[in-house]
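Hey team,

Sharing the Flavin reductase family protein run so nobody has to redo it. Sequence (171 residues) first:
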Amino acid sequence: MPATPDPAASSPRAAATDLFRAVFRQHAAGVAVITARGDSGPVGFTATSLASVSAEPPLLSFNTRTASSSWAVLSGAAHIGVHILGEHQQEMAATFARSGADRFGPPTVWRDGPEGVPVLDGVPAWLVCRVHARVPAGDHRLVIAEVVGGDPAGAGRPLLYHQGRFTALRE
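Structure output:
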């Protein structure tokens, strides 16, 4: 016997957006902070869209809203920093996600890294990448970048984002 059609399946676009958000709240994602250097100083934001793209050459991707305060710098940056956050860095993740926050003021500790990219201290791992492409994707841009350096030797377990909040792995 055929299933009864779901009236929500043919509802307007807003329902599709709500469905999309509801489904992705079920998807646990690692948390990263993306940084870049602008003429007026460093910029950065929290990203949960970080993904490996290719091992040869080493490429990664992330998404950013074009309406974000960081986009003006990211749209022209030749190099960016990618920082994998640890479970002990929930406050840092929240700071870099908050609009209008002083992201590079205390308690954030950072330094100028390779290619002038701001590098955050105390993270489990970080990379410096050369921007390879910026692909329009709705109200975002998909940024593809090639790894040129970094350090995977920091301590800590990864920070996750799930159900709209930061969390840690459970044993």
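The first helix runs from residue 13 to 25.

Ping me if you want the raw files.
A.
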